[in-house]
Design goal:
GO terms for molecular function: DNA binding; DNA-binding transcription factor activity. The chain is of the alpha+beta class. The protein is 37% helix and 25% strand. It contains seven helices and twelve strands. The strands form three sheets. A four-stranded antiparallel beta sheet has the order 1-8-3-6. A hairpin with a 6-residue loop joins strand 9 and strand 10. The radius of gyration is 18 Å and the shape is globular.
Amino acid sequence: MRTIWFFEDANLLKLLCPHKFKRYKEDHNFHAYRKNDYIYFEEDSANKVYLIERGKVKIGCYADDGYEIIKAILIRGEVFGEKAILGENKRTEFAQSLDNTTSICPIGVGTMHGLMQDNQSFSLKIYKFIGMRFKRLERRLQLLLFKDTKTRLLEFLNELKEDYGYCCPDTGDMVIEHPYTQKDIANLIGTSRPTLNIILNELKESNIIEFNRKKIRLKNVA
């Protein structure tokens, strides 16, 4: 499933950044953000696509009652704002920096369309990426609507396993080295951090998982 976020294991920053192309390099700059800075808001003009060169970015929106809905938390090498490629005029979500050293590579929609027109294979990869991201978001929203918190966590761990996991041959355990904090995970599965801690400890007591800040071990996966 890495192809959802990394085109066939290729870091998007290395694949798309205008610094790779001489005709764009001179006029291109990276943008720096501090923690809690917004890259864009809902209703802002959608005229750029963004690549994360460093740091972490939260994508979300607000419900009518003001409740914050987190759609994704993205890290280095990932892309966001991609709906602008499909003709979105105004943003339907916000993007916010979660680190004090976030660095973003913005790409104008015109530039992106030019790159896609010049390379059919690249264009197909872009559309595949967008389709797979929509599919994953749809699955996550279905979980939020119809599944209990424990099921949502187990499904999220399954996603992490596909993206960041490796099998430990000696034990058959699946080890997941991931970039998310517990607060990030709680936001992504639509629960509170205390509730998440309770469920994690229940799973640990049942010998299903072991965990620390940056690593989760799924026991006896084989």
